[in-house]
Inverse folding.
């Protein structure tokens, strides 16, 4: 049923010549008699021998492939990043080899290894949540393989980055909540080690500060707290909460559920803004206001930077921070202009 | 900034020996003086030479990697298939290399090529919509690389398959619509060349037949028709439509929009069932009834079949058809039991 992959060695054995003779014959490497060469080519064809471009790439040192490491594809954000990357790489004639880390460090390390083993010409990656040490990233840089990191920053690694400006994105969202009348605003935080969590939290605090609203620790929750729903529920009872800014749309939906259970109307009593603008945001009722991070652009720009570095290793490193867009829907009140 | 990847040739040049001498020294291949060997090992270490597991795999003929070709990741279906695959492969110590076809035949062909070039031990794939010829799949089989196809059938290719039983899935959905009072049921079809489209259409017809409802061509629409909304809208005016069965949840949402525009109530006036049970189904109002195809199970079973074939090439081919589940939500009426 299953045929073994035909190797140069198989052909060599069958014709009683050395593998290097077969290799030279197949690659027009000379030093093989014409008669022998024709025998070898005929048998290779008959056996369905497939030349091995990886072996060839060891000489040429180019595979026209780019590696991509992404935490997962459940979030639409990453499939949009992928679409952006593909829009650039496919035009340039590069093939993508994708690995997922599933937000696990061990799998991330293995993925980098696999891509280096596959001799990709460069790597695009979003590091996983569990990252606290970065030897494997340093190893990529040491190998001379161009690396562009997306979305999440890793201070220790000096390479090109494309991120979205989470600080300003969060600031604008909370600033808008305040300008539409909210003053007691809950923040549901993201995973602790991520730069994105830190920056969105800082943007939240900065907006409060701008409007001279005292920061209240009682209104801040960890998104991965298994008792998140109960804690928000309790908070709604003991505080005059009128706004919620969540690290992600999915965390915003958790808050949605609590508000619905408590019979609290959105946005009349409490406004909500999520983050990432997942397609689901337009399907829920009321539709969710959210911060769009331009994931397609992120992927396209990162791929462009990587291709530049592959083509010219002397290309200077870049750090690109993309502007986000606050997408307003029905989960927030309409903006009331301040009378002149 | 960027270091060139150190090759065996670089080391050879620096020490004025042949590359094959370096290779033998690095691989303990003998025929190298101990002194020369120590020189080579020392320089290799100094330059940060990385042994090349792919080159080694050419000898061992194993890379412990599995290739996966998926149309795209926008649909949650495929990220669930991926999760199922990973649940099996990661336990077995295999790394996945993923390529996307974006439903384009050219990109699919290139993806197979890239994975064969990366010397994966086997390939899992869902063929793209645009497939009408299959030489590239036959080439995979001819190369002796185990191949398991998922979700979509390709009659010409004799290999292992894991699909979901679309005929029965569609039959059950339409049977349920009829048992809850619908008789004039629209069907919105999927892409023409796909086996899944054909089977769901056949299931729809079979359910009508069971209940002696005449098949009416006027109630069947092509999902990719740019005038789909207008045509459904017109159909609703000239027919007493009371049910809709769509090839996918996304097509069901198109129908949702038309019904809302026309002020038609779901499910009081028209019931709707989608297909694939995308997470969005639970977020829309009313929540969408849908057919769950068990994508996680599909991935896990396909990965299991592939691993068996990799471990034992004599493993017989299998054809697995998974039972679907009709998930009832608020877009359909509740089942009225027939009085005994």
């Amino acid at each position: 049923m299953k045929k073994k992959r035909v190797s140069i060695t198989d052909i060599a054995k069958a014709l009683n010549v050395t593998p290097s003779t077969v290799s030279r014959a197949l690659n027009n490497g000379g030093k093989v008699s014409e008669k022998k060469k024709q025998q070898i080519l005929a048998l290779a064809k008959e056996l369905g021998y497939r030349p091995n471009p990886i072996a060839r790439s060891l000489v040429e040192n180019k595979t026209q492939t780019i590696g991509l490491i992404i935490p997962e594809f459940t979030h639409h954000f990453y499939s949009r990043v992928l679409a952006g990357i593909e829009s650039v790489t496919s035009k340039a004639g590069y093939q993508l080899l994708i690995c997922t880390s599933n937000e696990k460090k061990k799998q991330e390390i293995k993925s980098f290894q696999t891509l280096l083993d596959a001799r990709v010409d460069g790597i695009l990656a979003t590091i996983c949540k569990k990252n606290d040490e970065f030897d494997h990233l340093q190893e990529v840089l040491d190998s001379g393989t161009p690396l562009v990191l997306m979305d999440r920053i890793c201070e220790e690694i000096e390479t090109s980055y494309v991120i979205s400006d989470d600080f300003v994105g969060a600031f604008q969202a909370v600033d808008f909540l305040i300008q539409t009348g909210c003053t007691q605003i809950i923040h549901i935080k993201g995973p602790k080690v991520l730069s994105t969590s830190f920056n969105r939290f800082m943007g939240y605090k900065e907006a409060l500060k701008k409007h001279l609203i005292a920061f209240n620790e009682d209104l801040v929750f960890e998104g991965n707290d298994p008792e998140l729903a109960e804690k928000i529920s309790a908070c709604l009872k003991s505080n005059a909460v009128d706004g919620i800014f969540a690290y992600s749309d999915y965390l915003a939906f958790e808050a949605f559920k609590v508000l619905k259970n408590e019979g609290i109307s959105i946005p009349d009593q409490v406004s909500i803004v999520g983050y990432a603008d997942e397609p689901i945001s337009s399907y829920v009722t009321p539709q969710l206001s959210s911060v769009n991070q331009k994931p397609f652009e992120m992927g396209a720009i990162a791929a462009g930077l990587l291709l530049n570095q592959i083509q010219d290793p002397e290309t200077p490193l870049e750090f690109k921070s993309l502007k986000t867009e606050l997408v307003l829907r029905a989960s927030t009140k309409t903006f009331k202009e301040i009378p002149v």
